[in-house]
Amino acid sequence: MNKKIIESSNKFFEYYDKILDSILIALFSSMILLIFLGIIGRSLFNFSIMWSEEFSRYAFIWAIWLGAARAFTLKRHLVVDFLILRIRKQFRIYIEIILYILIIIFLFYIMLEGIKYSRLYWYNYFYSTDFLKLGWAYSIISIACIIMILNILRLILEEYYIRNYKHEGDNK
Predict the structure, then answer these.
(1) What value does the mean pLDDT take over residues 134-138?
(2) Predicted TM-score (pTM) above 0.85
């Protein structure tokens, strides 16, 4: 691998991580704001935003799925940490790659199921409004699986780079 390619991919993934973090912050902020406005509106003004509770619920689901995708880049999933720490250091990368490939296969299956649900509910609206579609809410399953697969491939490439190139220097 060329040093320029590695530097440009690092810049890309740094920007990519910032975008994902910004989306997570926006989701949590919108949830908190809508719930707060709903409480204030009901208690002080006898007015409620009908769709705020339902939107907040789906925003929370989006945040969970995207947070799980982000956790791969931070290596924060318990199962991966628990299994990997029990294996000798010299075999760790190979076991990690095998586990990541198994996770990718599972995520691919979940992604296909998410596409089915999105298509099934694409023309149905939220129960409390006629401008938010349930298909968008279910689309996070497929979107997050794609992001998780990308993050896992990124981890595999980073582990491969660390294993093969850092020890030999930047000559390759």
Answers:
(1) 84
(2) no
